[in-house]
Amino acid sequence: MASMLESQSGTTVSQPAPSIEGSSFRENMRLELKELQEQEIIRRRLLIDGDGTGDARMMTKFTKSLIKWCFSEDNSPESQLQYERLLTSLASVEQSATKWDNILQMNSLQIEHYDEIKSVTSEAVTDAESALAAAKSELSRAREVRNHGIQYHALAKLIQEHPARSPTAHKLDKLGSSLDKLKNTRNELD
Q1: Mean pLDDT of 94-116
Q2: Longest CA–CA separation in the chain, Å
């Protein structure tokens, strides 16, 4: 049975499961446990039990069992059974760590996706604002053209109601000459 151990750099290293027969493994475990700093333990607990699913409790239970097993001097079948339980607990802890790592990666991808949506939406809003400004100026121009058209039609109607100057001037000349003739005729009659 192989177990996965996470090194300080965060990479996962596959190592064969050590035999409990050798006391050097226990001695190495004792030294490694002493080397873990309190801050590292707290950091790992916070990373593991981020949302209160009980992973920290499972990790604490595993750590206590491991310490108890490391400091026991006994090579009995009960110690072998306890060792097997530790390996099972370690597999659960590794599975939990993998799960949280996957969740973290998924959340990062989701954040990137939301950032992409935000940039696309921002561009769409900017484009819509510029299109709206262009439509407003076009509408203003169309209103101005329409108002000019209305004024033109009103003036054209007014002009159509009144006769042109040259025919009117011609009529006035005729009427004036006709009036002069009538005056002359009246003067002759007088």
Answers
A1: 92
A2: 165
